[in-house]
Amino acid sequence: MRKYLVDFLERFDYPEESKQPIMDCFDKLSMSDEAMAVIKKHIDSYAKGGTEEYVACHGEMVTIAAKLGTPWQTARLILDIFLSRVLKEKYDAKGIEEQIWVDTVSEFKYKMFEFYDTDHIWGCHTGTWWKYFFDMKIFGIGRFQYEITDFGYTYDDDEKNIHLTPDMKAVSVHIPGGGLPLTKDVREASYARAKEFFRDYFGDGPSLFMCISWLIYPEHEHMLSPKSNIVDFMHDFTVFDRIEPEKSHDLWRIFGDAHILPYEMLPRNNSLRRAYAERLCEGKKVGEGVGFFIK
After folding, report:
1. Which of 20, 179, 211 is nearest to 107 (CA)?
2. Which helix (H) or strand (E) segment is 45 a member of?
3. Model pTM?
4. Quick one: which of 135, 137, 157 has its CA closest to 146?
5. pLDDT for 73-129, tens place per residue?
6. No. of H helices and E strands in the chain?
């Protein structure tokens, strides 16, 4: 097991400063019969069936890590890395190419970086988010992640003969926090591969893609440079709705651990942060956009 963990961290280019805390945590877990029993139980359960014990086993890891004096967030990351080996076997059984597995489990590192930016621990606390990856409902395909979902909205454009209903199937686009820049060619390559991957749902006809994200918040048209990759990405979609809560739940994505500061103290060391800090200081809301495109 130790070798698989070492090889995984090396293959996915985890930073050197993260490797030692992760390996130290594993070494503590490996000396605990209770911890190894939980890890092996969950690996065996996942190999035989699904992810029914996913949340419960992560809860057990939290308790064990506390007993051992090691970060539970790191212990949970280690458990999921071990599960990735079984996920690879499930992909192989379904004839899914290895690169999609690579793109999918790269999410572990991306989320680890996000968590380190906010909590300064090499680990993660994703709740049930990764369960959808292990259930093979969300797939990494190139720059983005995708899942089949109901569209969930009504949209009509008589001029373009577009009529969308809530029960229509759509490919939902998720944007991981790491990976290549959101350039046009990188995005289009990912969309094309996703269209082919989900061909069983749409046949040879057009495929409906949708996205709900802060990255397609329509006010970016006024907040950011028109040359921004974020604005260019937003233009991939017909953005037809917005979600503006009283307090955005996405500020941590932009400001890291500083997201809890008063707005006037938010860091402004890049154009995105400056734009958001200025808008918030003006008393304006920020939020998410809802959009689609047909490919």
Report:
1. 179
2. helix 33-48
3. 0.94
4. 137
5. 999 999 999 999 999 999 999 999 999 999 999 999 999 999 999 999 999 987 789
6. 14, 8
Q: What's the one-letter identity of residue 265?
A: M
Name the E strands within 83-207: 139-141, 144-150, 155-157, 162-164, 169-174
Contacts of 254 (CB under 8 A, 6+ apart): 272, 273, 276
Instruction: Using alpha carbons, select from 22, 225, 234, 232 the residue that is nearest to residue 123.
Output: 22
* Structure token pair of residue 57: 């086993």
How far is residue 51's CA from residue 70's CA, in Å, rounded to a whole number?
Answer: 25
Chain segment 228-240, per-residue pLDDT in tens: 999 999 999 999 9
- pLDDT at 252 (0 to 100): 95
CA-to-CA dists, residue 29 to 74, 125, 191, 244, angstroms:
11, 18, 41, 43
Rounded to 10 deg, the angle between the 54-68 and 72-93 helix axes is 140
34: how many CB neighbours lie within 10 A of its CB? 13
Dig out the tokens for 235 from the structure.
């233009």
The distance from CA 93 to its chain's CA centroid, rounded to whole angstroms, is 24
Q: Which of the residues in the chain have pLDDT under 50?
A: none
Q: Taken in order 176, 177, 179, 180, is the CA torsion positive or negative?
A: positive
| Contacts with 171 (C-beta within 8 Å, 6 or more apart), sequence order | 146, 147, 148, 149, 194, 195, 198, 201, 207, 208, 209, 210
Contact 87, 66 (CB under 8 A): no
Domains of the chain: residue spans and CATH: 2-111 (no CATH), 139-294 (3.40.630.120)
> What pLDDT does residue 272 have?
97
* CA–CA dist 282, 158 (Å, integer): 38
